[in-house]
Amino acid sequence: MTETLNQELPCYYMVPKERVDEILAEYNPDEIVIATLTSHSSLQIFHGARKMGFKTMGITVNHDTRYFDAFPLAKPDEFVKMKDFDEIFDRSGEFADKNVVLIPHGSFVEYMGAKRFQELDIPVYGNRAVLQWESDRDMERQWITSAGVPMPRIINDARDIDQPVLVKYHGAKGGRGFFVAKDYAEFKMGIDHTQPYTIQEYVLGTRYYLHFFYSPLSSEGYKVRDGSLELMSIDRRDESNIDEMYKLGSQEDMKRQGLFPSFVVTGNVPVVIRESLLPKVFNMAENVVKRSYELFGGIWGPFCLESIVTDKLEIKVFEISSRIVAGTNPFISGSPYADMIYPGMSTGARIAMEIKNAAETDRLGEILT
Ligand code: ATP
After folding, report:
1. Do 163 and 230 sit in the same domain of this protein?
2. Which residues line ligand 1 (CB under 6 A)?
3. pLDDT given for residue 5 in this prediction
4. For the chain, what is the domain count?
5. pTM
6. Which residues contact 34 (CB under 8 A, 6 or more apart)?
7. Best of 163, 206, 263 to mutate for ligand 1, by most ligand atoms within 8 A of CB?
8. Cα–Cα distance, 292 to 147 (Å, whole number)
9. pLDDT score recorded for residue 99
10. CA R_g for the chain
């Protein structure tokens, strides 16, 4: 399976920015309602929005919302229950009447589908054009590597496997079905040829999921373009069963018993990185932001560089998430990094603060698409 760079862009329909601006022209900036799908990081998004004085709306599609009763400070003012995602399209006029701004998160985009999310005629925080670059692994690689940020090497021909590799199926989510192979024989043993896949160098090192926020509205702090780049927090993911597999002996032994490693995210742990790596991680994030403006009009708001640091202190980014990630959830009351910018602030609250600033300065059109 080869990876094609510089390919032609797939053709997507995205709701035109003019249409979003038309809807926004009717909005009352003092009455904005922050809405998102109830899951993933929605507790944090609602909690942050309420702290910043917004009304909130939880959109549910066949989801049990009773757990929100257990967290009153993060419970949305209103639940809107839907039978499926098509209903959001049918009810977009109602959302516009309520001055709704949608906050994307991983589950929202994944369950709805990136393409459909781009078609929604409801104002969304962030640049929806990023979805097309992010949801295609080849385009994502083109963006990140052309920003000068190293990624794990791609092995185009399985017969060339001369080091541990990770085989990633394209449709896989949360690392489900990925497998590790150390040579061609192991690759042949594990591969499912019916699915498209990529073979990537397995980067041996420690994983850090770096949560940045780029504000085109702020001119304080670490300046990038006309805005500023903030490091809000860092987490490491708990992944089942790879994280605990070592307790049972070698992976070879496990394979003989039909037990294969998997990378399913089950939780998140807060971490900090050694201070001497900070210049490098800021530089990487800065270049990714700058390149995004050249390629597709930019990323702004929260994004995450999913990285591995080797024992030579090289950093390789294996994925970017261009929205709030669930790894920010441990930081609802701030983080070792956010506390040096905005004490006690979560990424959810930072999003709300950005929308509030934009509403107060008549700049909503610059951050909603
Ligand atoms: P998600 O969309 O939930 O982020 P995904 O299906 O796109 O997941 P990745 O994020 O690419 O999968 O990878 C899942 C996990 O596999 C990572 O969290 C990491 O533990 C591991 N991983 C990914 N790429 C590499 C690599 N090149 N070397 C070593 N480990 C890797």
Report:
1. no
2. 152, 166, 168, 172-175, 178, 200-203, 207, 237, 239, 263, 265, 306, 308, 318-319
3. 38
4. 2
5. 0.94
6. 45, 46, 49, 54, 55, 56, 57, 101, 103, 352, 355
7. 263
8. 9
9. 98
10. 21
Give the residue from 220, 249, 265 where a domain finishes: 265
Q: Same structural domain for residues 57 and 183? A: no
Clarify whether residues 195 and 91 are in a common domain: no
Same domain, 52 and 167: no
Residues of the chain with pLDDT under 50: 1-9
- Distance in angstroms (rounded) separating the CA atoms of residues 58 and 65: 9
By CB neighbour count within 10 A (0-12 exposed, 13-18 middle, 19+ buried), where does 185 fall? exposed
pLDDT in tens, 204-261: 999 999 999 999 999 999 999 999 999 999 999 999 999 998 888 887 788 788 888 8
Of 148, 49, 141, nearest to 103 by C-alpha is 49
209 and 198 share a domain?
no
Listing from the earlier edge strand, what are the strands of the sheet with 78-82?
A: 78-82, 55-61, 33-37, 100-102
List the structure tokens of 49.
């929005």
In a shared domain, residues 23 and 169: no
Residue numbers of the domain that contains 215: 17-149+205-237+271-367
Write down the pLDDT at residue 11: 52
9: Cβ contacts below 8 Å, ≥ 6 apart: 132, 139
In a domain, 172, yes or no: yes
Distance 367 CA to ligand 1 centre (A): 29
Residue 187 makes CB contacts below 8 A (sequence gap 6+) with: 158, 161, 165, 167, 181, 199
102 and 179 part of one domain: no
Do 117 and 194 lie in a common domain? no
pLDDT of residue 307: 98
Those residues with Cβ within 8 angstroms of residue 357's Cβ, 6 or more apart along the chain or in another chain:
217, 218, 363
Instruction: Give me the CATH number covering residue 195.
Output: 3.30.1490
Nearest CA to ligand 1 atom 9: 175
| Residue 318 CA, ligand 1 centroid: distance in Å | 7
Per the listing, tokens 């030579």 go with 312
Q: What's the pLDDT at 259?
A: 82
